[in-house]
Amino acid sequence: MKAMTLKSFGGPESFELSEVPKPVPQAGQVLVRVHATSINPLDYQVRRGDYRDYVPLPAITGHDVSGVVEAVGPGVRAFAPGDEVWYTPQIFDGPGSYAEYHVANENIIGRKPRSLSHLEAASLSLVGGTAWEALVSRAALRVGESILIHGGAGGVGHVAIQVAKAIGAKVFTTAREDNFDFARNIGADVVIDYRKENYIDAIMRETDGRGVDVVFDTLGGDTLTHSPNVLAQLGRVISIVDIAQPQNLIEAWGKNASYHFVFTRQNQGKLDELATLVERGQLRPHVGAVYALADLSLAHALLETPNNGVRGKIAIAVDPSAGTARVS
């Protein structure tokens, strides 16, 4: 099978199109013909060597799969050849999704939502699971609460807005002015142009000084330090960013704030919950660009470009039958 192999850690050019053996499913495993995958910040972090101790080279990376079951191993009962499935491969535990075929344990695989193309499903599995883990499992966001989602037009951010609205929360988000309509159309109640206005001032004005119940950090930097300044009492801060720089959290003490750090865990149940929102019309991923597998390096370069103008996710069509998706 064809795969994009990471031969060395470095820039986008570190990938090489290779011919590698097709995997064989073992007991409890499912062999999937990959129709589509997508790219995430985690993918370029792995590529450049941030997790080199966990990724022996050469490696096939990638963390989203949407495809069709090709074969099943002994003991598999939930899936059969021909089933359309989606999932996030187990991170740092075997080959990833930048290949024509992938093998995974059946307990992390879900049935692809029928209303999504493979490109769309592959653009939702990791970011959807991340948003669900952050907002539902960790923040315990409730009906009537408020949340600030940083980077609302991004891959995780645009999904988090929709999940928060499905829960029944009031959603504040930061975005560039040219993404205001996009953010509002997917459910944001208040959109703040972080380049023109201090988001802390905007939140406190819009909430009459109360602050928000939850801050969802998708950006990093000094967000953890500043988050208490927009939090209500007993507020929660959820971060999905690995931040090496020290943070000053003294202001969090006065808010009785709690901080949660999320690294997505693979879980079939989360996929099923997300699929329910999709089928109810409450959640849909936005595909901002599509590349062929052989052009993976170009896709990585685009994702790493600051202010690249891409809304939502960058998808990879591994198979031409992956279907179509909205592109902007």
TrEMBL record:
Subcellular location: Cytoplasm
Span of domain Enoyl reductase (ER): 10-316
Coiled coil, from the record: none
InterPro entries: ADH-like_N, ER, GroES-like_sf, NAD(P)-bd_dom_sf, Quin_OxRdtase/zeta-crystal_CS, Zinc-ADH_QOR/CCCR
Keyword RNA-binding among record annotations: yes
Gene Ontology MF terms: oxidoreductase activity; RNA binding; zinc ion binding
Superkingdom of source: Bacteria
One Pfam family it belongs to: ADH_N
Listed CDD domains: MDR6
Gene3D superfamilies, per database record: Medium-chain alcohol dehydrogenases, catalytic domain, NAD(P)-binding Rossmann-like Domain
Keyword entries, A-Z: Cytoplasm, NADP, RNA-binding
Membrane-spanning residues: none
GO CC term, one of those recorded: cytoplasm
Subunit-structure text: Homotetramer.
PANTHER family: QUINONE OXIDOREDUCTASE
Name the record gives this protein: Alcohol dehydrogenase GroES-like domain-containing protein
Organism: Rhizobium mongolense subsp. loessense
